[in-house]
Amino acid sequence: MRKALIGLFVLTMAMSCAKTVESGYIGPSDIKVENGVMTPETLLALGRLSDPQLSPDGSKILYGVSYTSIPDNRSCRNLFICNTDGSGKTQLTRYASSVSNARWSKDGSKIYFIFKGQVWQAPFKGKSLGKMQKLSDIPAGVSGFSVSPDEANIIYVSSVRNTTLQQPSDSDPALDKAQAYATEDLMYRHWDHWVTEVPRSYVAPFGGELITPDNSFDILGTAELYELPTEPFGGIEQLAWAPDSRHIAYSCRKKTGKEYAFSTNSCIYITDIQSGQTLDVTTSGGYDTDPAWSADGKHLAWISMARDGYEADRQRLMVCDVELGDSVSIGAVHELSSTFDHDVTGPVWHGEEIFFSSLVSEGIQGIFCIDMSGEVQRVTGEDWWFDFDSPFAVLESDKGTTLLASYASLKFPTELVAVDITSDGTSYRQLSDENGHIISQLDDIRSESVLVETVDHKQMQCWITYPPHFDSTKVYPAIEIVLGGPQGTNSQDWSYRWCYRLMAQQGYIVIRPNRRGTTAFGQEWKEQISGDYPGLNMQDYLSAGRYIKSKTYVGKLACVGASYGGYSAYMLEGLHGDLYDCFIAHAGIFDEKALWFTTEEMWFANWDNGGLTEYAYTPGQKGPKGDGITFGGMQQAGAPYASTAKARRHYANDPSSMITKWRTPILCLHGMMDFRIPYTQGMAAFNAAQMMGVPSKLVVFPEENHWIIQPQNSLYWHREFYSWLDRWMR
Questions:
Q1: Is residue 344 in a domain?
Q2: Cβ-based neighbours of 554, under 8 Å, separated by 6 or more
Q3: Is 16 a catalytic residue?
Q4: Is 387 a residue of the active site?
Q5: Are both 536 and 410 inside the same structural domain?
Q6: Is the predicted pLDDT of residue 10 greater than 60, yes or no?
Q7: Cβ(300)–Cβ(319) below 8 Å
Q8: HSE, side-chain direction, 13 A CA sphere, residue 420
Q9: Is residue 352 part of a domain?
Q10: Per-residue pLDDT at 277
Q11: Which of these is catalytic: 266, 313, 674, 714?
Q12: Is the pLDDT of residue 611 over 90?
């Protein structure tokens, strides 16, 4: 009784009023652009809109915007609201700490959100929030949540200690100042952190007593340290309440240690929160993610990859019939998108149809619709040069169907958009204008899509972006972007790290080739790169470079890229002859042998370096003795010591093997917290350049990972980037 009273007391406490402006609050920038020229400071001044949510009555959109303070070296996210036609924009919170995961109550009278690591609620009336009430007290904090449709229960994500990664104080509490990690298994670090904790998902009653560990239960119900959701990029979207509020569909890779390091096999499960019974829905070998229930709960959709270990396999849309009740019955699982040779992302049900987004052959991300027969229709236009995300809501009216979504382009970052489907055709309306006051101050840029012939006489799509006031009678320096991934696509998406508009506004022509390995041009084009890093895709880059260099208005040409793009820059340094005038490589792979022994996602190198054979990735099967594929029960077709022809060629022709041909100035950038491609790769490349007498510079960031996140570090990164270009290209 005493515990319940304490909980009710906490619930009634007012943390603050939503109209309060906290000390340290970061608001929109009033930056003034000089002479129409975009700068790195301009880039960091832009607000970042995210996570839109439609109100239950369909009249308002709730969303968040992050703003950055360079002097404070941080960003902060607060909540906004607008009408569904974009009017009536109102800021709801002005806090110094970020507000995230904001969701409407089922009647629209309250908004739930995460603030300072806990779940809170605030009443919503008109255009304002009332007093905040704390709903959870979870010592490890909450990183995401989802309330059941009937609002009787909540799923929340928190972390538990990873006991397989030992620290000195575990064996001797007196060593509380000693810093060390000890492990006897793999996956002890991942991307940007030591795996001291593992995310788990819990269910707790909602709407009464304070949410605590005492009234919560672990969805997995096991002591095995499985991740739920799966790191590093999974979140609350990987768990979905069924409409009956009793069942939960979720994606989980139930593996740890070495097994986890060598496999991408996650599955979709359905669990009954009343009985605790759990059913494995999927049978594929690779990733199964993004479960989505139909409104009536009779169908479940998800995204699936067929092959274990291949993280860039085609993303298929899978569907099965479901009967929910005291026992769950699953109908036959079938692929709905079998005739669609592109990746499906973000499935959203609307009756018996599913909307989704996909990168397609125009080099843009569009919205599509598929029915239960598998017929796919394109919704957004082929000539709409924007990247559209999947709709977050679908509205019906006597005029037709309206999709509420977000979109971006090379010219502006994410904004809210409405796509109207009527008998007269399909059109779009931009709803928000978060950064219009800054973008309108910039001189305009122009882009075009061109086809470049490859060495094997194929047509490769490339984007070219021109500086403001482009004059073909003048001569401009140019930048060729070598893409990361390696599987990805140069599209119309906005980037705060590699901002192509910023490059163009600094006076550079920018060419972005969609070489072999990019995902928007069918599976054959995408898969060619696996096991052929030094081959055709490098020739594709050279073809694009020669194409742009042949233009009379192009003078010097730079080659720049990150991650696999960094690998490409290092590789092309030894291959290009005299095509490029300088290189920039961020977080690039230099020595493939060293990377194999120091990276953590072994499935990636396994597949792309060696190319698994059928028997190597079939569960329960091993290759013949001495095949060089299976060692210690682990499939290692891409290892330096494997006997596969692809692996032998791969390691014999990596960038480190080309250093005697290096002679072009190169800038090497790397974050020291990058565990996917350790920073020693950048140091090794710089050391090699120095020993070869190549003009070179090394910039390392001790507290950054694969990406440069902190605002002042980002500003410094940009300054070093453009200083290097200007030094060798002007």
A1: no
A2: 475, 476, 477, 478, 509, 548
A3: no
A4: no
A5: no
A6: no
A7: yes
A8: 15
A9: no
A10: 93
A11: 674
A12: no
* Coil/strand/helix, residue 693: coil
Radius of gyration of the chain measured on its C-alpha atoms: 26
Q: What is the pTM of this model?
A: 0.93
Which residues contact residue 168 at a Cβ distance below 8 angstroms, ignoring those fewer than 6 apart?
Answer: 175, 178, 179, 180
How far is C-alpha 585 from the chain's CA centre?
21
Distance between CA 131 and CA 696 in Å, rounded? 57
Tokens of 659: 């250093």
d(CA 541, CA 564): 13
User: Same structural domain for residues 521 and 546?
Assistant: yes
For the record, the structure tokens of 38 come out as 């975009």
Query: Catalytic pick from 304, 406, 447, 563?
Result: 563
Inter-helix orientation angle 564-575/536-549, to 10°: 70
Amino acid present at 484: G
pLDDT digits (tens, 9 = 90+) for 365-389: 999 999 999 999 999 999 999 999 9
Average pLDDT in the 303-331 region?
93
Q: 453 φ, ψ to 5°?
A: -75, 135
Among 521, 600, 568, 612, residue whose Cα is nearest residue 310? 612
* 421 shares a domain with 291: no
Query: Lowest-pLDDT range, 4-13, 59-68, 628-637?
Result: 4-13
Question: Backbone phi, then psi, for 70, in 5-degree steps?
Answer: -65, -45
User: Do 391 and 402 belong to one domain?
Assistant: yes
Cα separation, 313 vs 286, whole angstroms: 8
Is residue 66 part of the annotated active site? The answer reads no
Give me the domain span that covers residue 721.
Answer: 443-591+654-729
State whether 157 and 279 are in the same domain.
yes
Q: Which of 441, 465, 496 is the last residue of a domain?
A: 441
Long-range contacts of 614-623 (CB under 8 A, 24+ apart): 617/285, 617/307, 617/308, 617/309, 617/310, 618/285, 619/285, 619/308
Q: How far apart are CA 111 and CA 123, in angstroms?
A: 6
- How far is it, in rounded angstroms, from Cα 345 to Cα 314? 11
Selected catalytic residue, list 670, 706, 714, 718: 706
**CB atoms inside a 10 Å sphere around CB 325:** 10
Which residue, among 125, 468, 530, has the nearest Cα to 311 in the 3D structure? Answer: 530
Q: Looking at residue 285, what is its pLDDT?
A: 86
Q: Which of 119, 134, 149 is the last residue of a domain?
A: 134
354 lies in some domain: no
Q: What is the CATH number of the domain that holds 722?
A: 3.40.50.1820
